[in-house]
Amino acid sequence: MKIFLFPALALLVAASACKKNDDTPAPATMQVTGNLSAANSVPAVSVASSGIGQLTGTYDSSTHLLTYNVNFSGLTGPATMAHIHYGDTRHAGGVAIALTVPAATSGTISGKIPLVMTTASGSSPAASQPDSLLTGKLYVNIHTDKNPAGEIRANLLAK
Where's the CHRD domain (predicted)? Predict the structure, then answer.
């Protein structure tokens, strides 16, 4: 019996030592995506648009650095502004970050920006930029003269 008990005890100790830790933190770097279209714009576009775009990038939760690349095409006129705003898929919100956009109907916007932990005025509901990104409450949009409130838009998804 003693011979059987020792291997069983050793097996139990080995199995408990291999137990997986369920408190594993999320990876520091996440993929960020978004599909821009006129159909996503809030409020709805005033002039119909076949404009589209794609945002791809990464977010590093340890440094709060957002790296992004936005390709867009088919706008009703040259882009006049581009921003990352606070807001969920059904609401427009205040500007979180101004982006530099080429004055063209198609092009690329890219860069690296640190997301800040403080809240900006006009954010609804009040939240930091990293928290807003991780809860799906940041969106990117591109404005034109024909659609000054925004012609194409995508909420950012971080995973």
Answer: 28-159
